[in-house]
Structures are given as structure tokens and as C-alpha cells.
Specification:
The complex is a heterodimer of chains A (271) and B (202).
Chain A (H helix, E strand, L loop, with lengths): L4 E9 L2 E3 L13 H10 L5 E5 L7 H14 L4 E4 L5 H10 L3 E4 L1 H5 L2 H10 L4 E11 H4 L4 H6 L6 E7 L4 E6 H11 L3 E6 L11 H10 L4 E4 L5 H10 L4 E4 L1 H4 L5 H10 L7
Parallel strand pairs in A: 1-3, 1-11, 3-4, 4-5, 5-6, 6-9, 9-10, 10-11
Antiparallel strand pairs in A: 1-2, 6-7, 7-8
Helix pairs in contact in A: 1-2
Chain B lengths: L1 E4 L7 H9 L4 E4 L2 H6 L2 E4 L5 H10 L2 H10 L3 E5 L1 H4 L4 E2 L13 E5 L10 E6 L1 E2 L15 E6 L1 E5 L5 E7 L1 E9 L2 E4 L7 H13 L1
Parallel strand pairs in B: 1-2, 1-3, 3-4, 4-13, 5-6
Antiparallel strand pairs in B: 6-10, 7-9, 8-11, 11-12, 12-13
Classes of the chains: A alpha/beta (271), B alpha/beta (202).
């Protein structure tokens, strides 16, 4: 049976892990390869590396880093941050990334999703969606289009943000999710801006709505603080995978503890 | 020496590094002459069927690999690299496969809420434990999948393992000197490395 996946996320700046990974006994908590190895040993199902500098000058550093990771870690990993075109995607895949995650550029140039999935296959194109709950009255300030389409349907909507959550767009997250799936995205990495960093749990209504809207896997992100949170989003909201950062980096729980807990509760998990 | 065929379709580093980590000698190449001198060839590959066939043709690799296989030298196809061996694929708009294996490559149907691509860790159900690639691999071991298409060989006897995703599809195949895996052994941690080690010892 296909299992649910638990995915630690590492923020990378230059070629270092940032946002404090606090592992005991780790020689260099800033070394992405070493951190990745630890997570591999803990039975992480995949890893996500997010390049938070994502500047043009840093592309070469990032490519070298991806090569280094692929040389040492025999598990699947996704790289995201600052991807602008087919060339960027090709470089990352050639360097050893299994998937790339595209956010801002996908919104600005949706055809990139189509071109990239046509060229490299849907399975390696992840579209990251950052969404925030807004009243539709507030939302239509940004969107004339939505007024005529589905304004009546819901009073609350999830609005898509880009540029690392700084810039609101005209897009309704549900509509956008359907569109990226139609364009050939292989997976959606869904971050709730309302829950991210709260440790109050994943955003169940948002995740459930997106899971029901599309037929591709959905990775839930943002809000993990307790073991039960993983269980809820995987079983109640139907997410295919859970992404988490700080809960693992600060060793509140190891990946293995989360997986053992889920397996005990009857969730399909690889142990 | 193992030739790892680099025809410009993505991730070959991980395959090479995984093989080298167990002491195998490898060469990453797109030259038919290198394939000739190697006793084993690995055809990896992610991406689209048409593009792959086009690239392989352009670089004169199809005939080189077909000759390799006909000379009874060991061949391992990974994911798309295995699918290319079949006669045709539902993914292809124009291209035909190598046709060394009889059968077709089909797409998972989007029915009963089955999500496509099939992405993540799933189990191997061993059908032919005599397959040397699966030596010491236990039934129901987890390996990593990432694909929307699967092979459907005409000859059931070449099915060495299947995996359940809506249907039982062929995840490992074995016909004489030809081996194929639908998952990514180079990404499947211990189980995957064991399978590659078996390949190296063939």
C-alpha cells in the first residue's frame, strides 16, 4: 500500500542550513548533507530544501550543494526557491534533485508548469501554494474576476500569496490548485499562512478543500506542533504527506517518533 | 565496467553515486563506443517518453543499447529507462519504444480517487524470488516510486515483482539479461542499495 509521507523541510541560505537545527551530537548543524543524513536515518520519507536566498548569484552555489546532497543521500528530495525558467529546472534536476518546487514564477507564468511537466514529466514538478484566509469582501478588492465567477459561493476564501508570503495575488487557492493540476503539476505543496509557525496544527479546512479539488498528491505544511496534528491532517483532511520544520529541527519529536505514532494509530506508514 | 547512459534526461548522478558507493566501476556516457566496451548498462531516465526516444535516436544510442542487449550483456532500466524497452507507450504521441520487450506502457487511470502520479513509498510483492536482482529482498519491502505510467508486459513470466496501486502493476521485471525496475533504487535507501548491490554482483 502507498504510505503517507513525513517530510522535514530545510531552509538553505548560501549553502548552509539556517533557522537553527538543534541536533545533539551533530558536528555541523549547518551542513545540509549531515542534517539530511540524520533525517534519512530517522526514516524521513523525503526531504525538501528551500533556498531562501534564491538570488541569481547564488544559483551556482545551490547547484553545487544539490550535487553534494545527491552524492551522499540516497533518498528523494525536492529543491525550491527562486526557480525562474526551464533552464533552472533542468540544472537542478541534472544536479540530482528529484523534484523542483515552483511558487512565484508559476503564478506569474503558469505556462511554465505545462512546459516543465511536458519536458521533464509531471512527477518532478511540485507547485507550492501559500494561502491565507480572507473574507471575500476583502478579497474582491484584489480581484475583479472573482466577483463575477464565484463571489456568491463562499463568504470566506483562501487567497494565494507569492514572493514568500509578501505579495497577495488575485488568485483563489482552490481555483489555482485546480489550474496547476490541469497544467500538469505532479504535486501541490500547500502552506497555510494562517497556521504556519503557530504550532496549533495544520489547517484542516484549507487542506481538505484542496485535497478534494484536485487529483494529484497534496503535501500539507504549516502548523505542526503535536503528534496528533500529523494524524489529523493525514486522516481528517486527506493529505498525502506532511511537511514540517521546527518540530523536527528542535527535536521536539524525531521523524521516527511521528511515524511510529501514526503507524500505531493505523495510518499506512513506512517504518 | 557499468555504462550509465546519459542522454540528457535528468538525474543520473544519484544512480552513479549509489553504484560507486558499493565499489562498482562506472562510466557516465552518451557514446555508443563506451557501451560496447562495458559489460553492463544502466538506462535511467525521468521525463517524457517521446523526448527520451528522440534524444536516444539522435545520439545513436538505441541501436547501441539494442546490440548490448542482443549480445546478452546485462541491462538495467530504471523507471522511464525500463518503459522505453517496450513496443509502445500511451504517453507517446509519435515515438515507438525499443521493442525488445513485448507489451505496452499504460497510464494509471484517475478512477476511484486514485491520484496520479503514483508518488511515494510502496511495497514490492515478490512474484519470482529466483530473480537475482531481488536476492535477500523480503516480501513487502518499501521502495520509492514517482511515475504516472507503468509497464504491462505481454509475457507474464517476466514479472518478478508487482506493486498495488489501484491495480497490481509490474514493478520489477526480469528476462534473461534484461532487468527493469519501475521504482528508483537509487532513492530507496537500504532496500534500494541492496537491489543495486545485487545488480553489481550479477
Amino acid at each position: 500500500m502507498l504510505t503517507k509521507r513525513i517530510i522535514p523541510c530545510l531552509d538553505i541560505k548560501e549553502d548552509r542550513v539556517v533557522k537553527g537545527v538543534k541536533f545533539l551530537g551533530l558536528r555541523d548543524a549547518g551542513d545540509p548533507v549531515e542534517v539530511a543524513r540524520i533525517y534519512g536515518r530517522q526514516q524521513a520519507d523525503e526531504l525538501v530544501f528551500l533556498d531562501i536566498t534564491a538570488s541569481f548569484e547564488n544559483r551556482k552555489t545551490l547547484i553545487n550543494l544539490v550535487e553534494e546532497i545527491a552524492k551522499n543521500i540516497f533518498m528523494p528530495f525536492t529543491v525550491g526557491g527562486g526557480i525562474r525558467d526551464l533552464g533552472d529546472i533542468r540544472d537542478l534536476l541534472n544536479a540530482g534533485a528529484d523534484k523542483v518546487s515552483i511558487n512565484t514564477t508559476a503564478v506569474k507564468f503558469p505556462d511554465l508548469i505545462k512546459d516543465a511537466s511536458g519536458k521533464f514529466g509531471s512527477q518532478c514538478i511540485v507547485v507550492a501554494i501559500d494561502a491565507k484566509l480572507v473574507d471575500s469582501s476583502e478579497f474582491i478588492v484584489h480581484s475583479e474576476k472573482l466577483r463575477t465567477t464565484n463571489y456568491e459561493l463562499r463568504t470566506k476564501k483562501w487567497q494565494v500569496y507569492i514572493n514568500g508570503g509578501r505579495t497577495p495575488t488575485d488568485l483563489d487557492a482552490l481555483e489555482w490548485a485546480k489550474k496547476v493540476a490541469d497544467l500538469g503539476a505532479g504535486e501541490i505543496l500547500l502552506t497555510s499562512m494562517d497556521y504556519d509557525g503557530t504550532k496549533d496544527g495544520y489547517d484542516l479546512p484549507l487542506t481538505k478543500a484542496i485535497v478534494e479539488a484536485v487529483n494529484i498528491p497534496v503535501i500539507a505544511s504549516g502548523g505542526a506542533g503535536k503528534l496528533g496534528h500529523f494524524y489529523d491532517v493525514l486522516t481528517k483532511a486527506g493529505a498525502d504527506a506532511c511537511l514540517a520544520a521546527s518540530i523536527f529541527h528542535y527535536q521536539e519529536y524525531t521523524v521516527r517518533e511521528v511515524k511510529e505514532y501514526l503507524a500505531e494509530k493505523g495510518v499506512a506508514i513506512r517504518l | 565496467m557499468i555504462a550509465i547512459i546519459d542522454y540528457g534526461m535528468g538525474n543520473i548522478h544519484s544512480v552513479q553515486k549509489a553504484l560507486e558507493s558499493m565499489g562498482a566501476k562506472t562510466i557516465v556516457t552518451n557514446k555508443p563506443v563506451d557501451i560496447k566496451t562495458c559489460d553492463k548498462a544502466v538506462l535511467p531516465g525521468v521525463g517524457a517518453f517521446d523526448d527520451a526516444i528522440q534524444e536516444l535516436k539522435r545520439q545513436n544510442l538505441i541501436s547501441a543499447l539494442t546490440e548490448h542487449i542482443k549480445a546478452k550483456k546485462i541491462f538495467l532500466g530504471i523507471c522511464l529507462g525500463m518503459q522505453l524497452l517496450f513496443e509502445e507507450s500511451e504517453e507517446a504521441r509519435v515515438a515507438k519504444g525499443f521493442g525488445v520487450l513485448k507489451g505496452i506502457v499504460k497510464k494509471f487511470e484517475n478512477k476511484d480517487n486514485l491520484k496520479v502520479p503514483h508518488m511515494g513509498w510502496n511495497q514490492l510483492k515478490l512474484k519470482n524470488s529466483a530473480c537475482p536482482l531481488l536476492k535477500d529482498i523480503t516480501d513487502n519491502s518499501y521502495v520509492y516510486f514517482c511515475h504516472s505510467y507503468y509497464p504491462k508486459p505481454s509475457d507474464e513470466r517476466i514479472v518478478a515483482a508487482t506493486t498495488d496501486y489501484g491495480i497490481d502493476f509490474t514493478s520489477v521485471l526480469w528476462q534473461d539479461n534484461i532487468y527493469g525496475v519501475q521504482f528508483h533504487p537509487e532513492k530507496s535507501q537500504e532496500v534500494g542499495l541492496k537491489i543495486l548491490r545485487n545488480f553489481v554482483s550479477l
